[in-house]
Amino acid sequence: MSKKTAKPVMAVNIGISEKDRAAIAKGLSHLLADTYTLYLTTHNFHWNVTGPMFNSLHAMFMQQYTELWNAVDPIAERIRSLGHVAPGSYAEFAKLSSLPDAPSAPPKALEMVAILAKGHEGAARTARAMFDLVDKASDEPTADLLVQRLTVHEQTAWMLRALLEE
Fold first, then answer.
1. Which of 13, 106, 32 is closest to 75 using CA atoms?
2. 12, part of any domain
3. Domain tally, the chain
4. Which of 26, 35, 68, 96 has the fewest CB atoms in 10 Å of its CB?
5. How confident is the model at residue 1 (pLDDT cuts 50, 70, 90)?
6. Could you list the residue range(s) of the whole structural domain that residue 77 is in?
């Protein structure tokens, strides 16, 4: 039997139907792709930021990409806990993410800030869109994970937008 068609030794029986687990895992896969895409963009901007705000943005972007890096594992592990395979390739993330890839040429510092603010808002929308399904399925662990992600994405987007005020 090939790896692709192999069945788990034990069926997943955690009190959430297979249909709901599959739908939740699909939503979490989108959130994982958004998170990873935002991580890559933030790390790219950390490396390539220039200008008078270099020191503060370089440090802030490092804090943000570190938080995003630490977020991908819990999302992927929740997908696995639901009995599904977590996506893990650039090709899969590109298909699943609602966020654009980082620009090929580094933008100016404040444009980086705007791109990241939009990215955090997009990731927040992806997380928020899952709540009805998660609530219906009584999937409290996923709901808790979504609340944690929303808290970070909304606060980070606010802080980034604040930098754009004149």
1. 32
2. no
3. 1
4. 26
5. very low
6. 18-163
